[in-house]
From TrEMBL:
Protein name: Probable secreted glycoprotein
Length: 921
C-alpha cells in the first residue's frame, strides 16, 4: 500500500466525512440539502498577476443544528502557479478550520442552527488571463448544495509617455510617464530599460514632482518609484516627470510593472538630438572695469539658457579667480553692471534686461534647484557640491577682496544647469552651446572742458529725450552768462556702473540721465572719485561758493552719460549740466566776476589698494563698504578700486567765470551809442556773452514822438565766438532823432544804450576845417606862437577823429578829438620856435577836409651901431655872416632846424635868409 502524503490524507478524511453523512441519511429520514444563499468572494485588488487577499465564505441555509459543514472552494482556473503555492490562508475567520490542496480550499464549520454565516481571508496570486471563476460547494450530512460561482475580471497595467519623441537636451527634453494599474493600490511602480542601469534611470525620473511623498530608489538595474502614502484609491502613482538630459539620443524600451504583480507593459520612446543653439552678438565684449556692457544673446530652439560667468583659471590679477556666477536668462539684451559683480547687490541691479534673469551668486538660489555640480563624466560623474558656495569652496575660491578687476572673464552658455569640473580643474557646462568673453580694461580719467548752453532747466533733456540735442547746443567757453546753462564735459571711464547703481535704475540705463545726488553718492562712497567745483576768488573772510551734488534738485543740476548712438561699453565721457539762474546748484547765488575751478579725477594712497570689508565665504561683500583700516590709515585720501599699489591717480582742472549778460555793438559812437542807418535793410552786428542759440531780440525805441515808435528785431543769430548779426527795415527812424536800443536774451535785458540814426553808416560824421587863422604874423625870435583853427562836424553823429598840423610838409602835431554835430570845436597848434624871417606854409588836416595858411616871420627892428672909437651909434648895414663856415657846422645847423620843426620827412631845402639857415621850400 502506497503511503499517503498530506494531500492524500486530507482527501481521505473528506471521503470519510462524506460517507458518514451518507450513512446518517440512510439511517434516518431523508434530509434536505444545504442552500448557499450568498457567496462572498471579494477583493480590492483585482490586478492580473498580483497577489491579492480575498474575503471568502457566505450564508448557507437549510442545515440542521450541530451539523458538520464542509465548504469547498474550487479555484483551479487560477492554478498557473507552481504546486499551488499561490494560495495562503491568512485568517480562518468564522470557520473552525481550513485547508488548501491544489486548486481546492476546504473550510469546516459546525452549524449552530438552520442558517450559517462564515467568512475567511485567503491570499492568492491572480491569473494573468483576463478573467477566472471561483466555485463554492457546501457539504453537510443531509446533502450537497448546488455550486455557486463568481467570475473575476482582472485589471491591466497601462503606461505611456506624454511625448514621443523627446530631445536629449533643451526645453523639450522633459515628458511625463503615466501608469495605470486597474484595481491595484500598489506601493510603487517598477521601471527598467535594457541598456540603462539604476543610476541612469534615477537621473531620468528624479526631477521635481507635485507630490512631496514621491521618491525614487534603485534596485539593481530597476527603479522603484514610490506611491504616495495618501494615494487612496488613486492609480499607483500620479504622472511622473522625466528628463532625458543625461542620456544620449537613441530608441529606448521601458518595461513598466507594479509591485505584487507579474503583469508588465513595454513602451518605446525615441530620444533625439535637438537642433538648439545660443549665439552671442560679439566674441569679445570689451569695457572699462566698473562700467556697463550690453550683450545680445539669441536663443534658437531654447526657452532659456544658463550662463557661466568667470572662473577662468588665470592669475594675472589678485582676486580674479574668486568670481563665479551662474545666470539663468531667457535671451535678448542683457546689460551687466561690472562694478557690482560679486557683491551683495541684488540680481536685478547687476543684470538688467527687459525679460527674465536670475543669478545664483546674487541671491536667486531658489531658482537653481535644477543646477548640480559634478565631476566630468559627461554629466554623470559624482556630485561634488550641493550649492554654488560649496562648489566655490571645492575650487578653493574665496570672497572677492575688491570689485572685479581688469582681466578677461569667460561667458559660457549651456542648455541646462549641470556644471562639471573638467580635467584641467576649470568649471564648464556639461552641454555647452556657445562661448564669449568679457574683457575689463583699466579705467582712467581724462580732460575737463566747460561749455555753455541756452537758458533752460538742467534736466530739460528729459523733455527732448535726446542727449544729442543738448550736444548740438553746446559752445565751448570758459565764461558763462548768468542764467545760461553751464555744462562740464568730463572725459572718464570706470564710473558709470557707480552712477547707475546710485541712480534711479531706468531701463535701459541712462536713457534720460541721472539725478545729481547719484554723483554726490559716488563722491561720498570712499570710491576715490573726485568731483569738486569751488570758487577761487572768494573774499578772504568768506567761505568759497561750492557745489554739493547731494543737495540740488535735478532741475538745477543733472548728469548725462554720453550714451546716444554709442554702445554702453563705449561711453568715455559724461556731462554735468548746471542751471545758473538764481543760486541754482551752488551753495550761494553766483555773482558777476566769480571765478571757479572744476576738478575731476581718481586717486588712491600710495602703497595701498581698495579693499572690501572682510566677510566669510558664502556672504557677499557690500558693494560700498571699504575696509575701515584703509580709512583709518589714510583718512584724507579716497581709494579708487582699480588702481594698483604703485598708482596714486590723476586729476584735471578747468576754470570758468560767471558774468552778467552783456552785449557790445561793432558800430558805435565815441559815446558808445549804437550807430544805425535809417535804411530799408540795415544790419546790426556785435558780440555778446550769452550762449549761442539763446532766444534773443533787439528793440529800437524812438521816445521823442507823440506815439513812440518801437521796432523789434527777432532774427538775431549768435555764432560760436559770440558775434551776432540782425537785419531789419529801419526806414521809419529819422536821422538825428533820439532812439534807445535794448538787447534782450531770454527776455532778460542784457544791454541798454542810446542809438544815433544817420543817413550814411559809412560816413556818419564829417570834420570840416572852417577857420585856420590865416595869416599868422610873428617876429623873428618870438616863441610860443600859435595857430588857431576851428573844426565843425557836419555829420549826424558825434565822432572822434585824428587832427593833424602840418608845417612845411612836416607833421608837427596830431591829436584825437571828439566833435559833436553842430558844435564847432577850436584847436590851437604851436608854431616851431627859432624860425628866421620869411613866409612858411602850414595845413590843418582832418580825415574829411584840410585848410592851409601861412606864418609870416618878420625880421626884428635894426639895432643902433656905435662907431669905432666913439660912443655914438651909427647906421651901418648888418655885417654879413661869414659864408665860409665849415661844412660840419653847416650840417649841424640844418640838423638843429630839422629837429626843431620835427618832420614826417625832411623839410624842403636849406636856404640862407638874412645870413642864417631857415626852413623853406
Amino acid at each position: 500500500m502506497s503511503s499517503l502524503g498530506p494531500s492524500g490524507l486530507r482527501r481521505l478524511a473528506l471521503v470519510a466525512i462524506v460517507v458518514g453523512f451518507v450513512v446518517a441519511v440512510g439511517a434516518g429520514t431523508a434530509a434536505a440539502e444545504p442552500e448557499i444563499e450568498d457567496f462572498e468572494f471579494d477583493t480590492d485588488d483585482e490586478l492580473a498577476g498580483a497577489i491579492a487577499e480575498y474575503e471568502v465564505g457566505g450564508d448557507v441555509a437549510n442545515v440542521s443544528e450541530n451539523q458538520n459543514l464542509v465548504f469547498e472552494l474550487d479555484v483551479t482556473e487560477w492554478t498557473e502557479s507552481e504546486n499551488g503555492e499561490f494560495i495562503d490562508i491568512v485568517d480562518t475567520g468564522d470557520f473552525d478550520d481550513a485547508d488548501a490542496s491544489g486548486g481546492v480550499i476546504t473550510f469546516t464549520k459546525t452549524a449552530g442552527g438552520e442558517d450559517v454565516s462564515a467568512v475567511a481571508t485567503i491570499s492568492l496570486r491572480n491569473p494573468t488571463i483576463d478573467e477566472a471563476t471561483a466555485t463554492l460547494t457546501v457539504h453537510s450530512g443531509e446533502g450537497t448544495s448546488e455550486p455557486a460561482t463568481e467570475t473575476v475580471e482582472f485589471g491591466e497595467i497601462a503606461a505611456s509617455f506624454a511625448d514621443d519623441p523627446v530631445d536629449s537636451i533643451g526645453p523639450d527634453d522633459e515628458t511625463t510617464l503615466s501608469v495605470e494599474a486597474d484595481g491595484s493600490p500598489a506601493e510603487h511602480v517598477v521601471v527598467s530599460s535594457p541598456g540603462l542601469d539604476g543610476n541612469q534611470l534615477e537621473s531620468i525620473f528624479s526631477v521635481d514632482r507635485d507630490h512631496e511623498d514621491i521618491g525614487v530608489e534603485t534596485d539593481g538595474d530597476r527603479l522603484l518609484i514610490n506611491r504616495p502614502a495618501d494615494a487612496g484609491e488613486q492609480p499607483p502613482v500620479p504622472e511622473i516627470e522625466a528628463s532625458f538630459t543625461h542620456v544620449g539620443a537613441a530608441n529606448y524600451q521601458f518595461v513598466i510593472s507594479v509591485d505584487r504583480s507579474r503583469e508588465e507593459t513595454v513602451i518605446p520612446l525615441e530620444v533625439e538630438e535637438p537642433e538648439i543653439d545660443v549665439e552671442f552678438d560679439e566674441d569679445l565684449y570689451e569695457v572699462p572695469a566698473g562700467d556697463l556692457v550690453t550683450m545680445d544673446v539669441s536663443l534658437d530652439g531654447l526657452d532659456e539658457t544658463y550662463l557661466l560667468v568667470g572662473a577662468d583659471g588665470t592669475t594675472a590679477e589678485e582676486g580674479v579667480n574668486d568670481f563665479l556666477d551662474i545666470v539663468k536668462f531667457d535671451g535678448g539684451e542683457l546689460t551687466v553692471n561690472t562694478r557690482l559683480l560679486g557683491t551683495d547687490a541684488p540680481a536685478d541691479a547687476v543684470y538688467i534686461t527687459d525679460g527674465t534673469v536670475h543669478s545664483y551668486l546674487h541671491g536667486d538660489e531658489t531658482e537653481f534647484d535644477d543646477v548640480d555640480f559634478r565631476e566630468d563624466e559627461e554629466g554623470e560623474g559624482d556630485e561634488i557640491a550641493a550649492s554654488l558656495d560649496e562648489y566655490r569652496a571645492e575650487l578653493d575660491m574665496t570672497e572677492q577682496p575688491r570689485p572685479l578687476q581688469p582681466d578677461r572673464y569667460r561667458i559660457v552658455a549651456g542648455a541646462e544647469g549641470t556644471v562639471i569640473t573638467r580635467d584641467d580643474e576649470i568649471p564648464d557646462f556639461d552641454y555647452p552651446l556657445g562661448r564669449s568673453n568679457l574683457l575689463l580694461n583699466q579705467p582712467e580719467p581724462g580732460e575737463v572742458t566747460t561749455h555753455v548752453a541756452p537758458q533752460a532747466s538742467a534736466n530739460s533733456v528729459e523733455e527732448t529725450g535726446s542727449l544729442n540735442e543738448l550736444l548740438d547746443e553746446l559752445t565751448e567757453r570758459e565764461t558763462v552768462a548768468k542764467g545760461d546753462r553751464l555744462v562740464f564735459e568730463i572725459e572718464a571711464t570706470g564710473i558709470y556702473g557707480n552712477l547707475f547703481a546710485f541712480g534711479d535704475g531706468s531701463e535701459p540705463p541712462f536713457e534720460e540721465g541721472v539725478h545729481p545726488r547719484a554723483l554726490g553718492s559716488v563722491v561720498d562712497a570712499h570710491e576715490g572719485i573726485i568731483v569738486n567745483v569751488s570758487e577761487t576768488n572768494s573774499d578772504p573772510n568768506t567761505a568759497p561758493t561750492e557745489i554739493d551734488f547731494n543737495e540740488p534738485a535735478d532741475g538745477d543740476a543733472y548728469v548725462l552719460p554720453a550714451h546716444e548712438d554709442e554702445e554702453l561699453s563705449e561711453i568715455d565721457r559724461f556731462y554735468v549740466v548746471l542751471d545758473t539762474r538764481d543760486s541754482g546748484p551752488f551753495t550761494r547765488s553766483v555773482r558777476h566776476g566769480d571765478e571757479f575751478d572744476v576738478e575731476f579725477g581718481y586717486e588712491s594712497p600710495s602703497d595701498a589698494r581698495h579693499r572690501f570689508v572682510d566677510v566669510p565665504l558664502g556672504v557677499r561683500p557690500p558693494a560700498y563698504s571699504i575696509d575701515p583700516d584703509l580709512v583709518d590709515e589714510n583718512p584724507n585720501t579716497e581709494h579708487y578700486p582699480y588702481y594698483r599699489t604703485s598708482e596714486t591717480g590723476e586729476t584735471d582742472i578747468a576754470p570758468f567765470r560767471i558774468e552778467d549778460p552783456s552785449a557790445e555793438y561793432d558800430r558805435t559812437t565815441v559815446a558808445d551809442e549804437l550807430l544805425v542807418h535809417n535804411g530799408t535793410e540795415v544790419t546790426i552786428e556785435g558780440t555778446t556773452n550769452v550762449a549761442p542759440g539763446t532766444e534773443t531780440h533787439i528793440q529800437l525805441i524812438a521816445h521823442n514822438r507823440t506815439n513812440p515808435t518801437r521796432i523789434t528785431i527777432d532774427e538775431v543769430e549768435i555764432d560760436e565766438d559770440g558775434s551776432f548779426s540782425a537785419t531789419e527795415d529801419l526806414s521809419t527812424l529819422r536821422v538825428g532823432e533820439d532812439v534807445e536800443a535794448e538787447f534782450y536774451a531770454n527776455q532778460r535785458l542784457a544791454d541798454k544804450r542810446a542809438a544815433d540814426v544817420v543817413d550814411d553808416l559809412d560816413d556818419p560824421s564829417e570834420f570840416i576845417v572852417t577857420d585856420v587863422g590865416n595869416p599868422v604874423t610873428m617876429t623873428e625870435g618870438d616863441n610860443d606862437t600859435r595857430v588857431s583853427a576851428t573844426i565843425e562836424n557836419t555829420g549826424n553823429a558825434a565822432d572822434r577823429k585824428p587832427i593833424e598840423f602840418v608845417f612845411e610838409d612836416a607833421q608837427i602835431a596830431e591829436t584825437n578829438r571828439t566833435v559833436e554835430p553842430d558844435e564847432p570845436a577850436p584847436f590851437n597848434f604851436d608854431v616851431p620856435d627859432g624860425l628866421e624871417a620869411g613866409t612858411y606854409n602850414y595845413t590843418v588836416v582832418t580825415p574829411d577836409d584840410e585848410a592851409s595858411g601861412q606864418v609870416v616871420v618878420e625880421p626884428p627892428e635894426p639895432e643902433e651901431v656905435i662907431a669905432a672909437g666913439g660912443d655914438d651909434p651909427v647906421d651901418d648895414p648888418a655885417e654879413p655872416v661869414d659864408d665860409n663856415l665849415p661844412a660840419d657846422a653847416l650840417g649841424e645847423l640844418v640838423g638843429a632846424l630839422t629837429s626843431l620843426v620835427g618832420a614826417r620827412h625832411a623839410v624842403g631845402a636849406a636856404v640862407i635868409v638874412g645870413g642864417a639857415y631857415v626852413l623853406g621850400g
